[in-house]
Amino acid sequence: MISLWHFLIVGAVLFGLGLVGFLTRRNMITLFLCAELMLQGVVLNFLAFGRMHGSLNGQVFGLFIITVAACEAGLALALFLMLYRRGRSLDSGLWQTIREQGVPPAIDTEPLPIETEEPHPVLPVTGMKPGVAPREREVTRA
Amino acid sequence: MPPEFADPKLQLALALALGALGLYLLLPKPKRRSVAAGTFLLIAGLAVLGAFVAESFGNPVGQLVPDILFWLFSAGAVGFGTMLVTQRNPARGAISFAFVILSSCGLFLLLAAPFLMAATIIIYAGAIIVTFLFVLMLSHVKGPSNENDRAREPLLGSLAGMAFVGLILFVLLGAKPAEAATTSDDSETEFALPATLLTKADRSALREVHTSLGEALSGDDAKASHEKAQTAHDKLAEVIGGDGVTGKRKPVLERLAPLIGDPKRPTTHDPRLLAFTAQTLQLQKANDGVEDRYLLAAPGKADRAALQKLKDEVAVYSGNGQLPARNVSNLGLLLYSEHLLAVEMAGTLLLVATIGAVAIAGRRKGVPA
User: Looking at the whole model, is its pTM more than 0.80?
Assistant: First the structure.
């Protein structure tokens, strides 16, 4: 029988994964999705405890978490759009100028790999050059 | 399996170390990123974690289908979650997040939360993911870029996350009761909600009612089922009260009467009391329904659905035992009685967030578009 503990473990692992992503990733959208991953883990915990006690209050809390997450998504997207307009990038490292005083800046030392993009295929030039049809030429001459 | 490997703490540590190393190798960075090795380590870590869970918390035998579904959905949620964290392309990350949502919705169904499952799929997979994909299209980058191909302190980050998971799992390991695998309904604990006024004796009586209703429903013998249902009906009437009932204890409705006055026209404004009264009256109605449609019905026309409904109501009411799967109406009752203020506040929050989003994202003069 699947018990409460199994669901608690899944919730904890989801929360931990979201934590890793939130700490390490730099794309703001990925950051946000990782925060949502953590919220999923929390909702799972609420539901599992509610199921264990035969009480529906856990589900009510889950509903409120979803509501808050939806609000958060709307506001975060608006903020991302504004930041993207200012910095032309979704990199959160771009905004480290607002860090705490006395903290050294994070500087990227290793160069990014240069992606050797394959050139687009080019068709060889064959056949006649498209021009005005012969009959139309005659008509214009006349 | 050698004994030193079967120690759960060692298993847990091994799983977490494999997970941290795999995450470190998989996180995007200019050098030392190895997808194959990272994936291999993560799968090994997941397998060790699964073995740890199965050994320490019981590998279920008996109910095959829920167990298979549980392992399937949880593996899906964790696997796609890892993909979301380590994926370089944020659009693919958003898609794998949608799969995380679908998997965890499966887990919600296993936890008897059908309404929450539907709401989560609609809101997350339907609305949030699509909006994110729109923003991603607006801000599309070509080739390697700082935000997608670099990670901030990948080793420290993955170690911190895994240490957190290890802490929680270690506490869970220490806190589990001796028979964690079998005790899912903790019968002797006192929990305040939703039935605040129930005494311990009430609860045990309700549990007996629940058990005999289950026996009445599962039995093949019509006469025995009828008797069981009759016992359950009488006992329940004794607990909650009704017309012409004389029991040893004071029934719940009698105890409620001085607190709220007439149930039809209550004198109190305490939402919890009102909700509890409403729930009690609903249970009484279901009990009457069983009397009319099952106990007093002609032998061929006995309505088992009424019996099932009463069983579900008793489970929710007593706050003990397993939550019935069809609990959407009870969720609505709870939401709009006990949590009415919170619902209103959530609505206000949504409104404020909408206005705020429009105000933030709107183009203004002076800001380069």
Answer: no
